[in-house]
Amino acid sequence: AISCFRHFATSNDCHVTVVIHPRKEPEGDTLSLASIWGTSKATQEADNVMILQKTKDGSRSIDIKKNRFDGQLGSLSLSFNPPSRTFNDLSEEASVLRSQFSGPREAASRGT
Fold first, then answer.
1. Which of 7, 43, 94, 111 could cross-link 89 (Cys pair, CB 3.0–4.6 Å)?
2. How far apart are CA 16 and CA 51, in angstroms?
3. Are 44 and 2 in contact (CB under 8 A)?
4. Contacts 24+ apart (CB under 8 A), 87-91
């Protein structure tokens, strides 16, 4: 099935996102490419592999485990905002960008 998604994306010059739940890992263990069910085919065919991590303290991050086109890997710390049901980037760079691109109303609501 993964090869069908890959063929569709290539033929139609589009991005396809496939969500694969990891296999059961011991509580608190960091997920890796090997944690992805059907990993050999799914991760080989993918251009990008991102894993949503949850640590023992409840914090979350997105780990970029594969990036076929520029190879840059890394981790992005996140916080969850329950009222909006969204994740927010906790990095300092994102904070600077948000302040540069937010309008006066948004800045006032943050108290800046």
1. 94
2. 16
3. no
4. 87/60
Give the pTM. 0.68
| Cβ atoms of 18 and 42 closer than 8 Å | yes
Give the three-class secondary structure for 49.
strand
CB 8 within 8 A of CB 16: yes
Structural tokens at position 80: 């969850």
CB 23, CB 37: distance < 8 Å: yes
Neighbours of 59 (CB within 10 A): 13
Distance (Å, rounded) from C-alpha 48 to C-alpha 23?
19
